[in-house]
Backbone:
């Protein structure tokens, strides 16, 4: 069956109404660069947002941009760049990890709440999303939020749609608040620290007044290099210089860093953002864990006794990317057990279909939250037409 | 005074008042239950004092378990519940109903844990906004959202309303600064949403709870982000000969890639009122004033200020006055943050809270003046200019029913205007009861229906704060 490709929101609504009438679920797709994400879905009919493109609003002086959901991310980023602006949360590009081609769409970024290293300082995609339009499972075109950055009018469906992986609606248009592109960037690279020392350094940096906007630790072997601990500073040139020096003094006990600027630094942070270090071996499973930052190294220690893996940290230690053999449950039970004491969640980002069908891809929910999630799903999609089972087998 | 309708109390609940009180008395000790008419009177309104309703009773539980027991009891007995923080809501979010109990969390006011390494504080929900900063300021940390009522308002109320403040241009609002909550559902079930880690592993339920105005559950604990204070901060006063030049300056600053931590606007009347109260050194011979605060290291402050002053000059600024001391800085912010209270000294007022695209500022301000003039009223304008969140204070005499009606009419017209130009009804105060009946100006039926279906997924029988947010007609249950 060829994919449905609505070119207007009204068409999308009509397709969903028809699917609901026929009782035939739909699978949503943007640029197809995250094929392999979430639980596999048994649905014959694909609906793509690729016909819904175009930037619909950009007011540089109001720090706001709107685009239809199928608009390629590069288009939005180019438009912003021309005005000296960026999407502050550094959207993650998962093509290297999934080995996919094509162009990520803004709708795909929103559906997965895909935020990169700067998330630790300025917030996630969900924090910068201020408006959405979507079609719910009744075939109704719904709007929430808008184009102004302070808005508490009614329930915040914007947040709920961000990271819902298309299970609560087919996104048709999204609006972000944006920020000026930092004038200058510098990265301090410390060598030779083990995980605990590396994360201790990042903690000191993040609790300093020097506005760190990237904090990653790469254990030895990551990207074929020795251990590296990265601290990024951004802003006006004089301020970045001052803060680099101040941080270096503050962190003197960790040794003398190399100061990285320009394309090399950009490349390094892109590798961190997209977890490119874990792209190979391709047959391995990839996990993304979120936990309190200072708990990161202890969690990794606990796992060491249970599992073979390679890993690195972002978000000051709170985001752990981890690659395991794609056998058994790919380490699911051990990983979720190890998370337990400090809280957080683990998502199985990459694994063969069979494994993702048999192992919970998203962190399993406590019974009360699962029941609530099912009621919420039904409140948007009473007949389970929209990406059914993408996040949870039971919802 | 009856412009805003409340649902008629259910007689079947009112006749059971004694039984309901007996039931509650089994769940909490006597000092946690307010039943006498005199004492209940303290809870009959909030910051929207023109409206009052006497609740059946007020429960003031001490912990999550007691909250759970009370909600379970109310759920089983069909009793409505109006959650309450400190009662500072400006939109009537905490105004009771005669057939409801008030559930206040003010006794739950302990800081449970501060973890500087992970940059979080875990607090009971009745802790005041400023108490969080107070608990961590010795280590040079702070909690960022800073509503003007921060001395009194609770974190529970901030979460309910997704409160903002003067510094959210840089730091965001409550939803960007809360990482987790413990919440009691209407049936007494206790759930934990989020935690000390970033982002949700499933649906962003925390994102929907923040700003839900006490309609989805009762939050008893919160884990919030605390941030390290900047090395320094300097507010600067900019006086302008016209509203337009002040508005154009704001747009030009942001368009130039500068994001000060705060850009606050005051018009002539607001300046006069606040200066008379706070003696902050505001310029009195100008039509509009901006308070622009920049922060960071000295190099950062000077680099930013230099550019901002340059931009202001090209737009005809007539006064530039930099704070020279911590005392001056405190006075400058005292003047701004007491704007509502200071205005209350000279007249009664209703405070609007619409947000508009900042590019429309000059025309909207002009239109607000015209609307007021048409009805023979005056407005003082004081607002967060960087993000377009307006707070026109429409002045009137509360003892003159005709004038009060005019003021409410003007207020509604202003909010419709905000929606018309691409903005919204409320930027940080919430819908409450005040803007409930205006929701149809911003939302279509399908938009509101979807919100109500979601609401019903949490509270199928509409027992939690039911008179608020959604128009009384056309409600959707589970």
Residues:
């Amino acid at each position: 069956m060829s994919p449905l490709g609505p070119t207007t929101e009204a068409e999308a609504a009509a397709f969903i109404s028809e699917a609901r009438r026929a009782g035939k679920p739909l699978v949503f797709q943007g640029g197809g660069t995250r094929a392999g994400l979430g639980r596999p879905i048994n649905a014959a009919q694909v609906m793509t947002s690729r016909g819904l493109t175009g930037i619909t609003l950009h007011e540089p002086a109001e720090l706001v941009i709107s685009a239809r959901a199928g608009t390629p991310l590069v288009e939005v980023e180019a438009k912003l760049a021309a005005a000296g602006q960026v999407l502050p949360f550094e959207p993650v590009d998962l093509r290297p990890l999934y080995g996919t081609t094509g162009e990520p769409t803004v709708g795909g970024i929103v559906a997965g709440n895909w935020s990169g290293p700067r998330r630790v300082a300025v917030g996630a995609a969900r924090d910068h999303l201020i408006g959405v339009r979507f079609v719910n499972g009744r075939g109704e075109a719904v709007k929430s939020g808008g184009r102004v950055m302070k808005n508490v009018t009614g329930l915040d469906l914007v947040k709920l749609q961000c990271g819902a992986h298309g299970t609560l609606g087919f996104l048709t248009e999204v609006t972000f608040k944006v920020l000026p592109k930092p004038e200058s960037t510098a990265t301090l690279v410390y060598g030779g620290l083990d995980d605990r020392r590396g994360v201790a350094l990042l903690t000191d940096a993040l609790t300093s007044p020097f506005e760190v906007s990237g904090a990653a630790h790469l254990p030895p072997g990551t990207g074929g290099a020795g251990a590296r601990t990265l601290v990024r500073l951004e802003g006006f040139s004089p301020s970045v210089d001052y803060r680099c020096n101040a941080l270096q003094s503050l962190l003197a006990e960790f040794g003398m860093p190399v100061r990285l600027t320009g394309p090399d630094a950009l490349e390094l942070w892109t590798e961190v953002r997209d977890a490119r270090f874990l792209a190979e071996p391709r047959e391995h499973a990839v996990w993304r864990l979120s936990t309190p930052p200072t708990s990161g190294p202890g969690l990794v220690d606990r796992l060491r006794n249970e599992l073979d893996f390679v890993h690195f940290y972002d978000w000051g230690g709170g985001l752990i990317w981890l690659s395991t053999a794609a056998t058994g449950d790919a380490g699911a039970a051990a990983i979720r057990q190890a998370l337990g004491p400090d809280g957080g969640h683990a998502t199985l980002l990459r694994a063969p279909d069979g494994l993702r069908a048999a192992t919970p891809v998203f962190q399993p929910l406590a019974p009360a939250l699962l029941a609530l999630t099912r009621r919420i799903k039904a409140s948007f999609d009473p007949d389970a037409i929209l990406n059914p089972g993408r996040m949870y087998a039971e919802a | 005074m009856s412009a805003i309708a409340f649902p008629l109390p259910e007689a079947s609940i009112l006749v059971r008042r004694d039984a309901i009180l007996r039931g509650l008395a089994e769940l909490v000790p006597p000092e946690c239950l307010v039943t006498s008419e005199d004492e209940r009177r303290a809870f009959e309104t909030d910051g929207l004092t023109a409206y009052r309703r006497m609740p059946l009773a007020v429960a003031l539980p001490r912990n999550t378990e007691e909250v759970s027991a009370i909600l379970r009891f109310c759920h089983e007995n069909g009793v409505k519940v109006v959650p309450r923080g400190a009662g500072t809501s400006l939109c009537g979010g905490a105004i009771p109903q005669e057939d409801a109990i008030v559930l206040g969390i003010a006794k739950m006011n302990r800081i449970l844990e501060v973890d500087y390494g992970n940059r979080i504080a875990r607090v009971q929900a009745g802790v005041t906004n400023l108490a969080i900063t107070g608990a961590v300021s010795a280590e040079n940390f702070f909690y960022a959202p800073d509503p003007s009522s921060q001395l009194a308002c609770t974190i529970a109320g901030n979460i309910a309303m997704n409160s903002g403040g003067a510094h959210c241009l840089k730091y965001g609002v409550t939803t960007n600064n809360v990482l987790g909550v413990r919440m009691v559902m209407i049936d007494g079930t206790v759930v934990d949403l989020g935690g000390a880690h970033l982002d949700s592993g499933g649906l962003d339920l925390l994102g929907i709870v923040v700003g839900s105005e006490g309609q989805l559950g009762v939050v008893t604990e919160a884990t919030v982000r605390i941030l390290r204070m900047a090395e320094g901060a300097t507010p600067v006063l900019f006086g302008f000969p016209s509203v337009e030049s002040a508005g154009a300056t704001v747009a030009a600053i942001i368009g130039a890639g500068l994001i000060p931590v705060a850009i606050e606007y005051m018009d002539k009347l607001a300046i006069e009122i606040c200066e008379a109260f706070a003696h902050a050194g505001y310029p009195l011979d100008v039509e509009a004033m901006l308070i622009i605060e920049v922060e960071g290291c000295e190099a950062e402050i000077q680099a930013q200020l230099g550019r901002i002053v340059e931009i202001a000059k090209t737009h005809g600024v007539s006064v530039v006055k930099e704070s020279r001391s911590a005392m001056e800085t405190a006075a400058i912010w005292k003047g701004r943050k007491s704007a509502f209270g200071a205005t209350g000294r000279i007249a009664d007022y209703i405070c609007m809270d619409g947000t508009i695209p900042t590019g429309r500022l000059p025309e909207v301000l002009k239109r607000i003046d015209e609307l007021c003039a048409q009805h023979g009223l005056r407005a003082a304008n004081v607002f967060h200019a960087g993000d377009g969140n307006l707070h026109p204070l429409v002045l009137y005499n509360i003892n003159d029913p005709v004038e009060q009606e005019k003021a409410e009419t003007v207020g509604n017209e202003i909010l419709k205007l905000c929606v018309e130009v691409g903005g919204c009804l409320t930027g940080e105060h919430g819908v409450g009861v005040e803007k409930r009946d205006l929701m149809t100006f911003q939302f279509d039926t399908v938009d509101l229906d979807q919100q109500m279906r979601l609401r019903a997924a949490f509270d199928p029988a509409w027992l939690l704060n039911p008179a608020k947010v959604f128009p009384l007609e056309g409600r959707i249950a589970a």
Q: What stands out?
A: Chain A is about 30% helix and 25% strand.
